[in-house]
Amino acid sequence: MWYFTPEEKALRDVCLDFANKELAPVAEKHDTEETFNLEAFKKMGELGILGITADPEYGGAGLGATAATIVMEEFGKVCPGTTLSYLAHSMLCVNNIEANASAEQKEKYLPKLVTGEHIGAMAISEPGHGSDAMGMQCKAKKDGDHYIINGNKMWITNAQYADIVYLYTRTGEARKDLTTFIVETKNTPGFSVSKEIHKMGMRSSPTGELSFENARVPALNRVGEEGDSTYHMMRNLEIERLTISGISLGIAQACVDQCIKYANEREQFGKPLAEFQMIQKMVAEMASETEMMRHFLYNLCYLWDKGDVSNTAAAMAKLQLPKMATKIALDAIQLHGGYGYSREFPVERLMRDNKLNEIGAGTNEVMIMIIAKNLLSQR
Q1: Would you give the DSSP letter of residue 164?
Q2: Active-site option among 8, 240, 348, 358
Q3: Model's pTM, two decimal places?
Q4: 6-119 has which fold?
Q5: Taking the domain 121-227, which CATH number applies?
Q6: Percent of the chain, pLDDT > 90?
Q7: Strands 178-184 and 139-143
Q8: What tens digit of pLDDT does each residue of 285-305 get?
Q9: d(CA 197, CA 100)
Q10: How far apart are the C-alpha atoms of 356 and 193, rounded to whole Å?
Q11: What whole-number distance in Å separates Cα of residue 337 and Cα of residue 278?
């Protein structure tokens, strides 16, 4: 991209190399076995990207949305599942602590998260409250210098491996009476991972249900004041939506690359598929759509880094990029024919993985509601 800085271009090259060496060779294995590439995840700490937006004072890289999205795209091309776990750690946990926690909390928790010694997760959704996050019922009640927490959190990425959970709870009756805590999973009596969740896609990214049964969390681990959680959510929504869209961009590009390779190698009726006009049309449209996705997304990332991205624009990216990537992945399966529908080629896995991006971090329908509300409220 023309507006990538030399540092961002170097980051792209490093991530591309890492993805090809550490993620690609075992992506299919981890998908089939539903296992987490913990070894590669720890190496990301050595690479210096687990705290990509965190302050260098705590070991972070101090970079922005463009750099974070570059990582998502390059990793997402080969193993979207591992990339999703990376996003949950770096953007949903580390970036939230960076943006919202006190200096003392940052000093205590960020260094080990940045190096990969600790793995992070974020917990908002509940069994009965997915899109309606503000209706959550996991409750925290003050008890001296602790809070007693009761409730469940559902669909939590990295649940089984998380050392630190950035947790949203209810501390009052009003919808906005929400409060955030940093939970140390190994040192919190009453906390457990109550269920492992098996998924259609993103199978190399561990997902589970968290249970809190009279779990005691120190008041010192409260982030901000009671009732601050809504503000915390709003501070980070844009970058979260942009970066998860980066995974979809990587998936779309991988599908294009696979189709070009296959069309040149596969022969039918005595000539390569690449010589058939219908195949040429499919590849041309897929590549054009992917390039449009790339320019739209990185333009928004560039503006976010300059402090000038609206909630509406970020929601538009989150709505359109995953939808377009699913279409491109389905087209890639069609182009591959029977091979595309089999597990012999990666396009079926890429399609399964991308469908999560239309649901997680805000469904397509929620993005439509946000965009429409913001546009139609203009006078």
Answers
A1: E
A2: 240
A3: 0.96
A4: Butyryl-Coa Dehydrogenase, subunit A; domain 1 (1.10.540)
A5: 2.40.110.10
A6: 93
A7: unpaired
A8: 999 999 999 999 999 999 999
A9: 29
A10: 21
A11: 13
| Helix and strand element counts for the chain (H, E) | 13, 10
Rounded to an integer, what distance in angstroms lies between the CA atom of residue 30 and that of residue 37? 7
Per-residue pLDDT at 363 exceeds 80 = yes
266 close to 358: Cβ distance less than 8 angstroms: no
DSSP 220: G
**Is 240 assigned a catalytic role?**
yes
- Choice between 232 and 242, residue whose per-residue pLDDT is larger: 242
Question: Residue 186: exposed, middle, or buried by beta-carbon count in 10 A (0-12, 13-18, 19+)?
Answer: exposed
Provide the 3-class DSSP secondary structure of residue 171.
coil
**CATH class belonging to 230-374:** mainly alpha
Task: Return the domain boundaries, the chain.
Answer: 6-119, 121-227, 230-374
Sign of CA dihedral 44, 203, 360, 332: positive
Phi/psi of residue 264, nearest 5 degrees: -85, -25
- Least Cα distance to 256 among 295, 286, 289, 292 occurs for 286
Distance CA 110, CA 112 (A): 6
Residue type at 375? Answer: L
